[in-house]
Structure formats: C-alpha cells, structure tokens
Design a protein that fits this description.
- The complex is a heterodimer of chains A (485) and B (446).
- Chain A is of the alpha/beta class and 485 residues long.
- Chain A has 3 domains: 56 residues, no CATH class; 256 residues, Type I PLP-dependent aspartate aminotransferase-like (Major domain) (Aspartate Aminotransferase, domain 2, 3-Layer(aba) Sandwich), CATH 3.40.640.10; 126 residues, Aspartate Aminotransferase, domain 1 (Alpha-Beta Complex), CATH 3.90.1150.10.
- Chain A has 17 helices and 12 strands.
- Chain A is globular.
- By secondary structure, chain B is an alpha/beta fold.
- Chain B is 38% helix and 15% strand.
- Chain B has 15 helices and 17 strands.
- Chain B has a 7-stranded mixed β-sheet, sandwiched between helices.
- The longest helix of chain B is centred in the last third of the chain and has 39 residues.
- Chain B is globular.
- The chains are: A alpha/beta (485), B alpha/beta (446).
C-alpha cells in the first residue's frame, strides 16, 4: 500500500459496515411511540461506510506516516520525550482500573483512591510540597489552577490590589497566556546575559500590586537559576507568591526540590517527567502541589485518608472550585504511578543525573559547529543559537527540516524567544551514547552541507511521507473538513 | 543502573572524560549547596515488573469494576460498547508515543486523523467547523462560554439548571476568575423554565448553555428558546451527548451556534473519569474565535495533499498573553479513539446504538414503574437516562443493588434540592432484557 493517500471518506462504499451489535432483545417499542417525531432528526448521518479490514488498514497506514519515541530519537527541548515504558500501558488497561465509573460509591473504588492518594504523596515528596491536586488535565491547566490558588490566597487576605503576575521574557508562552486567562495583568521581567532573572529588573517591578512570579528552574535555557533563594526572598518580602513551572523537573528529581527553593505552588507534567506518552498532543496531566498554607485553596475534591479508608473530600469552603469533570486523567496517573514504583528513589535520581550528563555531552560536541550563546554547564537541555559561520544564511528551520531526512525528530526551534535562531536540545536519560553520537554526527554533517550544498537544506525534507507544507495556504484558504466533490 | 537508562558506568565515564569533567556531581555544582536535597526520597525500593503486577492486582482487588457489575449508572460517563479494533489501533505506538504534530512532514498520521475527526464531529453535530478537541465536556463548555463573551462583548452566561451539575461547577470556577456573571435558570418539570429564561435575558446576555438530552435524560424543546436567544442577539450553546445524535435533532438543525460535549461515549473507557475529550463545533462565523488546535488541509512542495496545524496565530505560543485561550494541548489520543469509533460504527451503527439505548431505557422505565414502587420524576420524552423517585434513600438502595452485582443510579439529592429519593438510571445498548429484568426485580423487593 505504498503511497497511500486516502481519507477514510474516500474509502467509504455504500452498504459496508464494521460494527458488531447484538440484535435488540426488546420488542414492541417503536421509536415513534417513545419520542415525538419533531424531536427526531430528519437527516442521514454522514459517517463513512467501511468494513473492519478497511478501518484497520487505514489507521495502520496512517500510523506509518507518524514518528514517535518508539520510532526514534526525539530530542525536543522542553518536552522531555523519554521512553514510555510498556508495563505502564498494561497497568492502565487493567479492567479493575479502566472499568470503574467516576460516580461509583467510595467503598467500591478504594483501590483507585489509594493509587491517587499515594501518587499525591510521592509527587509531594519529590517536590517538597505539602499536598497535590491531580485534577488538572495538562501543564497549562495546572498553571491556571496554580494561579487561581494564588489569587484565592490574596483574596482571603483581603489583599485585592494584587492584580499582576511577573513572567520572565524567557518563559513558555503558556505562562503569560494562563496569567491572562486567570484574570491577571502581566509584567515581563528581563533576563540577564546568562539567561537568568535580572535581579535589578525584578526589584524594579516588585510592589504591593504583585500577586506572584512564575518561574521555571532550570530555566527555559536549561540553566539552573542559582539566585533562586534571593529571588524567592525578594518576592516574598514584597508579599507575592512563587509559582514553579515544573516543565523542567527532569533535571532535578531527588537532587533539589522546588519547595526547598522557596516556591509556594507548582505544577508537574506527568507526560514529561514521569514517562507517560504524549499521545500525539494529549492527554497529559498537570498535578498542582502547594505548601501547607495553600492547601485549603486546592480544587475539590482532594483525595484523603481516614484510618485505612480513602475518601474524596468536598468539604473545603475556601477551595477555588472544580477545574474539570471528575478527578483528572486517571489513566495517566496510573502510568506515572507505575513509573515511580519501577524507578524507586535511586532510579529517579539516576534518571535526572543521566539526563543532565547526556545534555552536557551533546552540548560539548556540538559547540564547534553551532553557536552556543551561553557557555556554562547545562542541566537536562541546552540551547544553541543556529549555525556557526553561516555563510549561506541558512535558517534554523532548514536545519530542523534536514534532520528529518536523517531520520531524527528535530529539536525545538525558535524557542526560547530570547535566543536568535534557537535550537533547543533535550536528549533525556533514556537514550544511549550511540544514539546521541548518531544525532551529533547528523548535526555536524548538516553544518557541513550548509556550507557546501545549501540548497539541500533549503529544500529539505526530501524523503519524508510529504515534503515541506504550504502553511500560508492552509491559513488563507481554510479547509478544515472534507467535503464531497 | 536501571532498565530504562541504557548508559552504563563505563559509558558515563567516557562521556565525562570527553568534556573534562570528573564526576556527575560536578555537573550539579551550579546548584547552591543549601538547595541540594540531602537525603534520599522516602520511597519503597524499585519494583520489578512481576512486583508491579502483583501490586496492581492488590490495588485492583479493592475496586469493583463494570466487569463484575452490571452498570446502570451514567450522569456524565457512559458504559457503551467499545469495538475491539479500537485498542489495537490506538495502541500503535507511532500514534501514542508521538508529540504534538509541530513537524507536519513526519506527523501526517496524527494530522490526517484529526482532520477526519473534525469532519466527523461536524457531520455528527451538523455544524460548520470543529477544533481538534479540548480536555473534556466541562472545559469545552467553558471555552464556548468565553467565545460567546468575546464574540458578543457581553458579560453574562445563562446556564440551565438542567445542565450537568459537574459542568456547571467548572463553569462557575472559570467565570468567577474572569468576573463573568453566571446566572442559573431554574427548571420546571425537568426542563428549562422558559418564563424564567425570558426574565433573565437582557442586553448583557452573551449566551445560554442548554444540555440536550439534559442531565435528566430529557429532550429539551429548542424551537422557542432558539428564537428568544437569537432575537436577543445572544448565542445558543448546546451541550450534547454525541450518541444521541444518531437519532435526535442535531445542534445544526436546532439553530445552535456552538455545540459542545464530552466525547467519552465515543469509544473511550470509563477510566474513573478521565482521560476523555471535549468536542467543540461552531458555525463558520465563529471559526477565528475557536480555541485550541485546528488542522487544515494544504499541499506540500510537490503539490500533494497534506495536513498541518493552522490558524496558529490564535494560540498561546504565538500570541502569548493575547491568546484566545491558554490551552496548548488537545486530547489527541482520545480524539483518535473517538474517530475510530465513529468510523467503525459508521452511518448505520451509530443510529442502531442510539435506537437500542432509547428502546432499552424505555423498556426499563416501564418495567420498573410496573412494580408500583417507583414513578418517573418527570413526565417528558427521554433518550437513554431517566429519573425515578422511590421510597428509599438512594445510597441505601444502591448498597442493596450492589449485593446483586448491580451498579445503581445516580443520587440526584446530591445536587438538587427537593429531590430526595430521586435517582437517575442509564440504560445503554450493552444492557440486555435479562439484566433489566433483574434490576427491576431487585428494585421491586426493596
């Protein structure tokens, strides 16, 4: 089936079907007798008509046009594309876990509640926080939850003029977007030459209107913010709280804890640090942890234990409320819980150590051919600033697209915004030295091509299922669904 | 050493040597001493696969799943049939171990699947445009409300009391922080009270969110409401059960502006409440107000049809604080599952599922009422759920049903005043006549 290029609608043939339902054993009830005609639809439902084999082939062939962590190296900075262990998948599919209904009584879901309670405790221990909510569906959802908690804290203190959140200029785009959605104004603070928060710039924006500061540590440049204690003290003295974006937790598990750095509230990305698959863009999970004085504001329900009985606690009068349906992405929680059990304390620490080692190894090997704007030991990721001696003015995007031809998923490009032509590489700990070397060789080869044969980069990729796509056309001439011709 | 971490001690040594660093600890020397965690994390030792399986067997044994219980519980999550092929396809690791399709040349699988998802959601709801999904039905409702506020430049959202209490709670949390008013419209006999709605509407009404079939399973009458809402220049948002669209009038036919809902019934496991997906479809005028990812069709350098994330100028990584929403993910894998479900069930299957739900739930209602101990809480046409009122406290009732391995209904007194002894039952196509008869007999003797 080489070159398969059909939409499922183009495979459809009248009369085919793939479903298998028993014949209804209820007789003598016609639809017209139970639902008034004017409430029933008049139209034919326009869904495909295909056989079971058609469905299997279609999606199998589509999957062949994808690239996943199981396909190959995925050094996507800030995304922690580590290996997704298969035992985790198996555990999440156990019918004793996947087959329970969210509205069942607590007595019938004690196993599920125990799992959530223990995951909460383990995540709190890793972070140095008092308690978590597992409800947020993703990192950005966790950020929103965290900022709402900060607002609820100030509101309870009748400190209503704290309407501003400080966000560094190197932050993830979600940080300012979330602050805006939570109803805050954004104050941007500059980074210094080393990509760290500029203390003078920070001091100049602190006031009694500041609700808090959002920070990633290690920063989005992959560098540890060694002034973090000072930053925390400054913000706290001004009456603000510190929010930790846990995107980069993979660098410091068992090594340093956000709670000890002075952060008051934080989110994790279970789909990054705790090995759950990204699913092609979701589902993720973004648990939020808080210090003791903020526990009362966590969303309802929290999972608690009384004697040997677990329960859902809705009795939290100061809670910010509910953030989503039910209790969060339970299947994702199962996977990260299984992961922590498989790793243990030593394994998690080793994961962070080897992630950092891998990143430094690569940075060191690539700095001769690519600009390294900040030369310093990095954490789990590093940021390059495009090609060195770039005589043909090759764009970072072209380097990324050429990597596709070499069989690699490219690193994150053009982020963080404060580095020109940024190439952000995060190898993770689950890659071997041979894999890293293979990628390094490809990057060096591409740097050579950039000098000797620039067109091959500008026109890349050459051997992918499709070639470079006209994104402008997609946005101008909107085709967002298939229509019969 | 750990099985997920390939580099050995010798590898590490070579790597350190290549950069003239003595030890791994030296790489962490940038962290101030007082911030170095000075003990080991307080965890059990790492477990082998065998130990993990045993541990999970122990945890699982403390749950009672729908494998052991006959499920008559709904109220936001539904025990529908899940075709076998879904697992085999959604578990292809090229799908589930992929990242967001930001490199479209090697992500055509995910992108085309989303494009097909958007098409099928549009066809099912009879709307013009769909996004690639959001977290769940509740957050889809929130995003729809924010779209309405943005579009109408008004600041009040009306929600019917017949909208899922869970969804209403989430809407209140979000709107509270945005200083958007939420007004609840009381119900009359299990449906929205139109007189109260008329009184509540004014120049600040951005939208009404009305569930259909509503939380009690009842099919709401839209005709007059649609006229009222639109003559007030407000938007009509409908929260729908996608399965019901196999039978009932669609949001498009009813003149709805934004259709949202939870896509769990489309092939997703119960999973104790998540992960599911929220679907959103709107009329074409609202396309640029739509939050979340959207996939569009284009061509590649050779002129070949290809798919790509589009309209990204709305999104947070470009717009930062001016973004339409802070959402930066979709439920891609759950949307893939929903797509495979819609394809597998197809034109006829989805209709058959809806018919069986309606027939079986009506059979169940009749049968239980025949016992003489229960009556319908509301005398209105319903789809697959219906509220009953009996003589017992609902949690006691459910405890007794559990002894018969039956997962009983949802206790409506939790969310509604004056609904003591009321419960909501759900009957899907999976239930048989025999199971329904057993439920009825069990209820009869209580």
């Amino acid at each position: 089936m080489k070159g398969y290029n059909k939409l499922i609608f183009e495979v459809s043939r009248e009369g085919r079907f793939a479903y298998s339902l028993p014949k209804s054993d209820i007789e003598g009830i016609s639809i017209e007798s139970i639902i008034p005609k004017e409430l029933l639809s008049d139209r034919e439902i326009d869904l495909p008509e295909v056989s079971e084999v058609d469905v299997i082939r279609h999606y199998t062939l589509l999957s062949n046009k994808n690239y996943g962590v199981d396909t190959g190296f995925y050094p996507l900075g800030s995304c922690t594309m580590k290996y997704n262990p298969k035992i985790n998948e198996d555990m999440s599919e156990l019918s004793s876990l996947s087959g329970i209904h969210p509205n069942q009584s607590e007595e019938t879901v004690q196993g599920a509640l125990r799992l959530m309670y223990e995951l909460d405790s383990m995540l709190s221990e890793i972070a140095g926080m008092e308690k978590m909510t597992l409800q947020p569906a993703a990192g950005a959802h966790g950020e929103l939850t965290g900022l709402m908690i900060i607002k609820a804290y100030h509101d309870k203190n009748k400190d209503f003029k704290r309407t501003k959140i400080i966000v560094p200029d190197s932050a993830h785009g979600t940080n300012p977007a979330t602050a805006a959605v939570a109803g805050f104004d954004i104050v941007e603070v500059k980074s210094d030459k080393m990509g760290a928060v500029d203390l003078e710039s920070l001091k100049s924006v602190l006031s009694d209107e500041i609700a808090g500061l959002m920070l990633t540590n290690p920063s989005t440049l992959g560098l540890f913010e060694s002034n973090i204690k000072k930053i925390a003290d400054l913000v706290h003295e001004a009456g603000g709280l510190l929010y930790y974006d846990g995107a980069n937790m993979n660098a410091i598990m068992g090594i340093s804890r956000p709670g000890d750095m002075g952060f008051d509230v934080m989110h994790y990305n279970l789909h990054k640090t705790f090995s759950t698959p990204h699913g092609g863009g979701g589902p993720g999970s973004g648990p939020v942890g808080v210090k003791k004085e903020l526990v009362e504001f966590l969303p309802v329900p929290t999972v608690e234990k009384n004697g040997d009985k677990y329960y859902l606690n809705y009795d939290k009068p100061n809670s910010i409320g509910k953030m989503k349906n039910f209790y969060g992405h339970f299947d994702v929680m199962i996977k990260s819980y299984a992961y922590i059990l498989s790793m243990g304390a030593k394994g998690l620490k080793e994961a962070s150590q080897k992630a950092v080692l891998n990143a430094n190894y690569m940075m060191n090997k690539l700095k001769d051919d690519y600009n390294l704007p900040i030369e310093q030991i990095c954490m789990h990721e590093f940021v390059l600033g495009g090609l060195k001696d770039n005589i043909h003015d090759i764009a970072t995007l072209d380097v990324a697209k050429r990597l596709l031809d070499y069989g690699y998923h490219p690193p994150t490009v053009y982020f963080p915004l404060i580095i020109d032509n940024a190439i952000m590489v995060e190898p993770t700990e689950t890659e071997s030295i041979e894999t890293l070397d293979g990628f390094i060789d490809a990057m060096i080869e591409i740097a050579k091509e950039a000098k000797e044969n620039p067109d091959i980069l500008k026109e890349a990729p050459h051997n992918t299922p499709v070639r470079r796509i006209d994104e402008v056309k997609a946005a101008r001439n909107l085709i967002l669904k298939w229509k019969k011709e | 050493m750990h099985r997920y971490i390939p580099n050995t001690e010798a590898d590490s040594k070579n790597m350190l040597q290549s950069m003239n660093v003595e030890s791994i600890d030296d790489l962490f020397s940038v962290i101030p001493k007082e911030l170095i965690f000075n003990r080991e994390l307080d965890f059990e030792d790492a477990m082998s696969e065998i130990e993990i399986k045993k541990h999970f067997a122990e945890i699982g044994s403390k749950n009672k799943s729908i494998n052991e219980l006959t499920c008559f519980l709904g109220a936001g999550a539904y025990d529908h049939y899940i075709p076998s092929i879904i697992r085999h396809l959604a578990k292809r690791s090229e799908f589930y171990t992929a990242y967001t399709p930001y490199q479209p040349e090697i992500s055509q699988g995910t992108l085309q699947a989303i494009f097909e998802y958007q098409t099928m959601i549009c066809n099912l709801t009879d709307m013009d445009v769909s996004n690639a999904s959001v977290y769940d039905g509740a957050t889809a409702s929130v995003e729809a409300a924010l779209m309405a506020v943005d579009n109408t430049r008004r600041n009040t959202i009306l929600v019917s009391e017949t909208l899922s209490p869970e969804v209403r709670k989430v809407i209140k949390t979000y709107m509270g922080f945005r200083k958007i008013n939420v007004k609840e419209i009381k119900m009359a006999d299990g449906v929205i009270d139109i007189d109260i709605l008329k009184d509540a509407m004014d120049k600040d009404t951005a939208a009404l969110i009305l569930q259909n079939p509503n939380f009690f399973g009842i099919i709401e009458e839209f005709e007059e409401i649609e006229r009222l809402i639109h003559s007030n220049k407000s938007l009509l948002i409908s929260y729908v059960d996608p399965i019901s669209l196999g039978l009932l009038k669609t949001p498009g036919e009813l003149g709805v502006d934004i259709a949202v809902g939870d896509g769990q019934p489309l092939g997703n496991s119960l999973n104790y409440g998540g992960a599911y997906l929220g679907f959103m479809a709107a009329n074409s005028k609202l396309v640029r107000k739509m939050p979340g990812r959207i996939v569009g069709q284009s061509v590649d350098a050779d002129g070949k049809r290809a798919f790509v994330l589009t309209l990204q100028a709305r999104e947070q990584h470009i717009r930062r604080y001016k973004a339409t929403s802070n959402i930066c993910s979709n439920q891609a894998l759950n949307a893939l599952i929903a797509s495979i479900y819609m394809v597998t069930m197809g034109k006829k299957g989805i209709k058959e599922v809806a018919m069986q739900c309606a027939q079986k739930s009506h059979y169940a209602a009749d049968k239980i009422i025949e016992t003489g101990k229960y009556k319908l809480a509301f005398d209105k046409p319903f789809f697959k759920e219906f509220a009953l009122v009996g003589n017992n406290d609902v949690s006691d009732l459910n405890k007794e049903l559990l002894k018969h391995n039956i997962l009983g209904g949802y206790d409506l007194s939790k969310d509604y005043e004056n609904m003591d002894k009321n419960f909501l039952l759900c009957v899907t196509e999976k239930r048989t006549k025999k199971e329904i008869d057993e439920l009825s007999s069990a209820l009869e003797v209580l």
